[in-house]
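Q: Could you fold this chain for me?
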Amino acid sequence: MRVLHDDGSTTICGHINEALVERGQNVRADRQIATVGNRGDPTGPHLHFKVRNAAGVAVDPARWLAERGAFVAPIGGPGSLF
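A: Sure. Below is the predicted structure, expressed as structure tokens.
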């Protein structure tokens, strides 16, 4: 699933089980858009999350989220489940 954001960046969510929105639909940040799944060849249910800027260049998803006010705990860090 790909989501185009107002700033031209695109987020890509892979291995989803079910899309909960329609193509072309506008969504808000608090809207659930999909359920986590294990489609493809994953080791188990999880979300594969990528971000590309408006020029199509891959960017660090944690930094992209942090710039938008989201807290992302590092894997193995405080608050992490892993």
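A (continued): The mean pLDDT is 85.
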